[in-house]
Amino acid sequence: MFTGIVAAVGRIEQVDPLGTSADAGVRLRVHAGGLDLSGTRLGDSIALQGACMTVTQLDGDHFAVDVSRESLQLTVGLERSGPVNLELALRVGDALGGHMVSGHIDGRAQVTEFTQVGESHRLGVRVPTEFGQYLAYKGSIAINGVSLTVNEVTDNDAGTEIAINLIPHTVANTTLQHLQTGDTVNFEVDLIARYVQRMLAAR
User: Fold this and answer.
1) Would the CA dihedral through 12, 170, 145, 39 be positive or negative?
2) Scanning 28, 65, 90, 194, which has its CA 20 to 30 A from the CA of 44?
3) What is the distance, to the nearest Å, from the Cα of residue 164 to the centroid of all Cα atoms in its chain?
4) Residues 113, 76 within the same domain
């Protein structure tokens, strides 16, 4: 379990295939950036761009994770070298600064707007229609592993459009600073909203 509060921006430095078949996954070698790995052990979980991964190797300020083909098909940003948002899994007693994030990516969404407004940025994202029922004004969503608050929700034929305000700190300290209109991002809807919808549907 995670909070969506990014601890550091690391970098995927190497991507190695785990086999020759079309179904083979990849092994990622990641530089941890400023992430403190001193308490990390093999088998621990680290979120990369919001996706929960298991540490399979540790080497100083580097670690490795194996990513299945299914995970690669559901996510973006884990198939190539580049910067990634990193967060260690919650431990008992940790502050829950964002919201409850499972690290199980729901899918990919499209950036429809990324513009500066005053000192902040306005981020527009279109998610597939079937996930619109989990999104609400002032609700939570994780984008590339970052816990964000939804400021606007609009349903249309193309999907559900949401708007988010990004404060300067968030932009400066996450990979969201690199976004452009048309980019694809990982998203995970609020876990509590998912359970509420399920309970209401069962009535």
Assistant:
1) positive
2) 194
3) 15
4) no
Rg of the chain taking only CA atoms, in angstroms = 17
Q: How many domains does the chain divide into?
A: 2
Residue with tokens 């990193």: 86
pLDDT for 128-153, tens place per residue? 999 999 999 999 999 999 999 999 99
CB 104 within 8 Å of CB 70: no
Q: Are residues 57 and 141 in the same domain?
A: no
> First-to-last CA distance in the chain?
29
Q: Say if residues 98 and 147 touch (Cβ distance below 8 Å).
A: yes
Please tell me the distance from the alpha carbon of residue 98 to that of residue 148, in angstroms, as a whole number.
8
* 3-class SS shares of the chain: helix, strand, coil, % to 5: 15, 45, 40
Domain span holding position 19? 8-88
Strands 82-88 and 62-67: unpaired
Alpha-carbon span 94 to 56, nearest angstrom: 24
* 3-state DSSP assignment of residue 81: coil
Q: What pLDDT, on the 0 to 100 scale, is given for residue 96?
A: 85
Contact 63, 31 (CB under 8 A): no
Provide mean pLDDT across the span 156-164. Answer: 96
Dist. CA 165–CA 151, nearest whole Å: 7
Q: How many angstroms separate the CA atoms of 8 and 146, rounded? A: 11
- Whether 136 is in a domain gets the answer yes
Q: For the purposes of burial, counting CB atoms within 10 Å of the CB of 32, is it exposed (0-12), middle (13-18) or buried (19 or more)?
A: buried
